[in-house]
Specification:
Blueprint lengths: L4 H10 L21 H12 L2 H4 L6 H26 L1
């Protein structure tokens, strides 16, 4: 799965656990896959920012910066909601 030695080393250094959830081959109807929905939901939330859905950027680092800004915006929204309710 992880073919790059640098990637393997970075994952080991960060002590991350990578789990790939694959769709069953004999699936006949819709089936919720474990934890996959969390990733898909988060990506959908990030993509709600119009700037990211309309990719006008020429440089990867610019796109990455906007993804980080969208993630910060999501975290701030949750933090504000938590502080207001507390």
């Amino acid at each position: 799965m992880l073919t790059s030695p640098k990637l393997r080393q970075a994952i080991a250094d960060a002590a991350w656990k990578i789990e790939v959830v694959k769709k069953p081959k004999d699936r006949k109807s819709f089936e919720v896959l474990p934890r996959r929905w969390v990733v898909e939901r988060t990506i959908a939330w990030i993509n709600r920012r119009r700037r990211l859905s309309k990719d006008f950027e020429n440089l990867n680092r610019t796109v990455l910066a906007f993804i980080r800004l969208a993630s910060i915006w999501l975290m701030l929204q949750r933090l504000v909601r938590y502080c207001v309710l507390s």
